[in-house]
């Protein structure tokens, strides 16, 4: 059944016990994203040290309301990017976006996406892709506000 | 253009085409007219379609009418003198006459639009355009100090156009609140609607709560102070007998695709004397009387409000939908849906952890039942329900302020129609329990 493929135990774990949840200071940029079709929303803050794409992602904090997919995807995001060079974090963002927009045809690289590979099943449900990408869009948007070389999308 | 009578076999229909029988619907016979209801979804599951509030399915008779029109009589209406143009115009205007009769008004009081949203915008923009029109448009003018009253339970389509009108004209937007039970709070009707109120725009039946609003007192008060009443009838016209003239509203909108008809066709009703005085919204071909290089004059309504080549096969399809509904009988449809809602409220309320958002009694209540499940986001719940073949809508249903008022970010909505069986309500309740089991929030599962 596809439903179990979508709701992997990893996703439900992140949903029930989200990592790095809550809004923290200090932060360099904040982004508020909303999914207008369902009303889900996330506010996400990014703290960077260093400059440009050579910076390191020091912290990502967030709050919001949404379904298990959007909440879990944001929790996984923090695991993937915190403590990493920004350049690498953006590569992961691109890889995750490619996976989600691949309609189930993209084979995820576990070395790059770690727990993020659990979302492969979500990609088969086009109406839920936006849920998985909401936090990632907020991350990209926040970074683009403080790093000139990074565009908003 | 004749339309094959609906295949509701073995049921009495009067000569007028309007059924007066009180017998229950033969739902199996009705379902046989809807090809899509025969399909399965998600690995062979029986389709339980409970999203007619968003869009309804179409019977063979409607599909056939559109196709037959296109195969035999298609032409641009109100143009040309050839035979096809004549037949197409007859089909188009014939459908207008039947649609008008269906909602108890005169043929020239019916304007075709792209959808109901466009109908509301047509009135709102005509009101802005009144600022630069002649004295006949005086009563449509709005400015600072004037007020528009809506309600907190409006669909965005009957809220945002009025916000925008107020922004363009400097008028002020006010609204009726909603009670905890999901009813319109009319306790301040007389102070909210006063001499400076120019428009009162409300829904007949909430697309989320199912609440049917008491129009009589609203219309009486609005007319007492000279305000125009605009009715969103999208959720009422498809589901029971509605008579706009009897209700006394000034304008009303509804959409074809929610009442067995095609998408791309909406209807605006306007009292004739108002349509005659109202300036146009969209301008161009078909809506003119005389055109010079310097200026133009406009056609009488309804043509004044139908610029460009209109939606023809869609209008023919909607005419067939109205015929179908009339033969089945709107009273009977309303009674059938009442039964479905009664059972849905009973079965859903019996599930621990489920809360209905909206009236829990069936009086003055239509066929939309929204609810939330403790511990499960509506999006997640609907995914499991969909896996069971139960197709419901989740989200804020284009009524975001209402959801804020009711204290929920989103709801799950089941909405019914004439083709829904009583056992589909049980399938709904079973699917809810399955969602609770899947996400392990069933009280008994600890």
Automatic annotation (TrEMBL), chain A:
Residues 6-131 form the NIF system FeS cluster assembly NifU N-terminal domain. The lineage of its organism: Bacteria, Bacillati, Actinomycetota, Actinomycetes, Actinopolysporales. GO terms for biological process: iron-sulfur cluster assembly. This is SUF system NifU family Fe-S cluster assembly protein. One of its GO terms (molecular function) is iron ion binding. It comes from Actinopolyspora mortivallis.
């Amino acid at each position: 059944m596809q439903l179990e493929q979508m709701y992997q135990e990893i996703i439900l774990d992140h949903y029930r016990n989200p990592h790095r949840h809550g809004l923290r200071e200090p932060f360099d940029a904040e982004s508020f994203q909303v999914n207008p079709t369902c009303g889900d929303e996330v506010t996400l803050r990014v703290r960077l040290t260093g400059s440009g794409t050579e910076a390191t992602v020091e912290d990502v904090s967030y709050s919001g309301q949404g379904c298990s997919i959007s909440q879990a995807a944001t929790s996984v995001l923090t695991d993937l990017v915190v403590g990493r060079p920004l350049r690498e974090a953006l590569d992961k963002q691109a890889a995750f976006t490619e996976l989600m927009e691949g309609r189930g045809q993209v084979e995820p690289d576990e070395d790059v996406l770690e727990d993020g590979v659990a979302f492969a099943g979500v990609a088969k449900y086009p109406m839920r892709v936006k849920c998985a990408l909401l936090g990632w869009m907020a991350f990209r948007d926040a970074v683009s506000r403080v790093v000139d070389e990074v565009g908003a999308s | 253009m004749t339309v094959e009578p609906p295949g509701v076999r073995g049921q009495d229909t009067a000569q007028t085409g309007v059924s007066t029988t009180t017998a229950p619907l033969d739902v199996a016979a009705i379902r046989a007219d809807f090809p899509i209801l025969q399909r399965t979804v998600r690995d062979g599951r029986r389709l339980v379609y409970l999203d007619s509030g968003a869009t309804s399915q179409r019977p063979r008779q409607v599909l056939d009418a559109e196709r037959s029109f296109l195969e035999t009589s298609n032409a641009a209406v109100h143009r040309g003198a050839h035979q096809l143009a004549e037949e197409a115009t007859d089909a188009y205007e014939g459908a207008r006459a039947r649609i008008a009769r269906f909602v108890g008004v005169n043929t020239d009081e019916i304007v075709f639009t792209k959808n109901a949203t466009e109908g509301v915008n047509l009135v709102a923009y005509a009101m802005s355009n009144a600022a630069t029109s002649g004295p006949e448009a005086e009563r449509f003018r709005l400015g600072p100090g004037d007020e528009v009253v809506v309600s907190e339970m409006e669909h965005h389509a009957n809220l945002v156009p009025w916000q925008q009108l107020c922004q363009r004209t400097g008028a002020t937007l006010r609204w009726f609140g909603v009670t905890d039970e999901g009813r319109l709070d009319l306790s301040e009707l007389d102070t909210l609607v006063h001499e400076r109120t120019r428009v009162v725009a409300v829904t007949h039946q909430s697309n989320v709560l199912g609440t049917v609003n008491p129009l009589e007192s609203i219309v009486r008060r609005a007319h007492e102070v000279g305000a125009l009443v605009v009715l969103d009838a999208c959720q009422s016209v498809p589901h029971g007998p509605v008579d706009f003239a009897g209700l006394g509203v000034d304008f009303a909108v509804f959409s074809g695709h929610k009442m067995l008809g095609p998408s791309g066709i909406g209807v605006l009703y306007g009292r004739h004397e108002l349509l005659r005085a109202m300036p146009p919204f969209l301008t161009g071909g078909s809506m003119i009387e005389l055109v010079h290089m310097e200026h133009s004059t406009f056609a009488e309504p309804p043509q004044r409000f139908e610029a460009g080549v209109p939606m023809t096969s869609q209008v023919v399809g909607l005419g067939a939908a109205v015929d179908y509904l009339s033969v089945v009988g709107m009273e009977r449809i309303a009674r059938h849906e009442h039964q479905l809602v009664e059972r849905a409220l009973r079965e859903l309320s019996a599930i621990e952890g489920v809360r209905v958002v909206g009236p829990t009694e069936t009086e003055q209540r239509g066929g939309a039942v929204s609810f939330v499940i403790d511990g499960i986001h509506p999006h997640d719940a609907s995914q499991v329900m969909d896996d069971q073949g139960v197709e419901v809508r989740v989200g804020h249903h284009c009524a975001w302020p209402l959801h804020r008022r009711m204290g929920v970010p989103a709801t799950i909505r089941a909405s019914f129609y004439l083709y829904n069986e009583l056992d589909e309500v049980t399938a709904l309740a079973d699917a809810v329990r399955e969602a609770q089991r899947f996400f392990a929030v069933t009280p008994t599962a600890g």
